[in-house]
Amino acid sequence: MFFKKKKTIVNKSMNQKNLDDKELIPVDQADFIKKMKDSLHNSADLNTKELQNGFTLMFFDTLTDKKMLNQDVLTRLEDANASPNEALKHITVSSTSKHKYIDDVVDAVLKGAVVVHSPGHPIVISAMVGTQENRSLTRPENESQVLGPQIAFNESLATNISLIRRYLTNPNLCNESFSLGKQTQSGIALLYMKGIADEDMVDRMRERIQTIDVDGILDSSMLVQLIEDNSMAIFPQLLMTERPDRACAWLLNGKMVVLVDGSVQVIGAPQTFIEFFQSMEDESVRWQIATFLRVLRVFSMIVSIFFTAIYVAALTFHYEIIPQTLLIPLGESRSRVPFPPIIEALLLETMIELLREAGARLPTKVGQTMGIVGGIVVGTAAVEAGFTSNILIIIIAVSALASFTTPNYMMGNVIRVLRFPLIILAGFWGFYGLMFGFCFLLIHLLRQSSLGTPFLAPFYPPRFADWRDSIIRLPIKWNNIRPEQARPVDKLKHNASKTKE
């Protein structure tokens, strides 16, 4: 207790020292204007307007709404006495603040506020009149689905928070605001449900956000790499979504949602490995269909990673596992191929990735045509020229097709990359190398965590209660317990017996 008290006293003294180092606002009007212009390096879009009654207004032309500035600030201040209290009474903008330090005034101007200085007073009033240039709400592009809401987040932090609040009209929805980036000062919002989310989890996320020291945060994908448990791992440990309904589902399960101003993706924490293969549409279809789709996605992931590697291992070392009826057509298909199976497979996988990347970077209509025509032309020409066998073309196509079933873009990229080291291991050591690669991936996943919770839950450690909404999805009336991974305070979603009645 003695050390804790001493630490508190030291922190208080440090905060007091930081406040003392701040420069107070000059009382003289000319000194205030000079200080503001020097702090903002005399920017060309910095506008200074002096009223006849003594008020001095400073704002950025490029950040303020001219109509709002004229109607709610300039017109209202023309007949007011030059004092901070009078300015507050007459300004009709909802968001106003008082400042006594010059640094706070500069920050307010940079965020789109107009600041009002009264001669002879060391207090400046700021009124937020920033422009609201937002993209209109559209359909989700990366997480499209047939059933369910058809609306996505946009780049405005305020709009994204309002979308979540429209779903969750609950006073227990907490919103904590942060500012990250020494140069960008990007707005960050941490949302969670009071009474459901675990306080220790919230404290851990809050601490990770506050301890970040970078020049700027431009997108939520950058923030993910700074707050996840192991940024060196190839597997992402936090999920991102562009769907407000999925973000609200996370909040209702006791998880947290982090939003970044200027980003259309929001972060959900904590997460498990199996959640990367779940879609929000699974909640909208019958439980039998949802279970089938989830099993199909997991099976497709296994096929995409191992199918080509098994082909290379079988042709290089283990002919005995190939059915006898398939040996003759396989031998005929490979009779003209001058490369060993490992080189053949790596060559085709690289060509597929080139076509996929070219289709993604080109304009939409050109990219689709490029992917289809390029795949057909290159594949046919490669077989006729003897660079590859037609059987491998089929295997590569199935592996590429299986990788598209993953509903999460980040996990889909991981699956694409993992195929290459496994093919190399299979080409050099056969099934022994393939088993080594599988064991390495499994151990790597077992060592991962998401915000301090096991990444492979509910399978390891086994939590049988959470299996009802993992690879399988039981009926909603039976799925009445929130996931144990988030350590929710309130564990029950609903009363199962009453729901059944």
Automatic annotation (TrEMBL):
<dbReference type="Pfam" id="PF03323">
    <property type="entry name" value="GerA"/>
</dbReference>
<feature type="transmembrane region" description="Helical">
    <location>
        <begin position="376"/>
        <end position="402"/>
    </location>
</feature>
<feature type="transmembrane region" description="Helical">
    <location>
        <begin position="295"/>
        <end position="317"/>
    </location>
</feature>
<keyword id="KW-0812">Transmembrane</keyword>
<keyword id="KW-1133">Transmembrane helix</keyword>
<comment type="similarity">
    <text>Belongs to the GerABKA family.</text>
</comment>
<dbReference type="InterPro" id="IPR050768">
    <property type="entry name" value="UPF0353/GerABKA_families"/>
</dbReference>
<feature type="transmembrane region" description="Helical">
    <location>
        <begin position="422"/>
        <end position="446"/>
    </location>
</feature>
<dbReference type="InterPro" id="IPR004995">
    <property type="entry name" value="Spore_Ger"/>
</dbReference>
<protein>
    <submittedName>
        <fullName>Spore germination protein</fullName>
    </submittedName>
</protein>
<keyword id="KW-0472">Membrane</keyword>
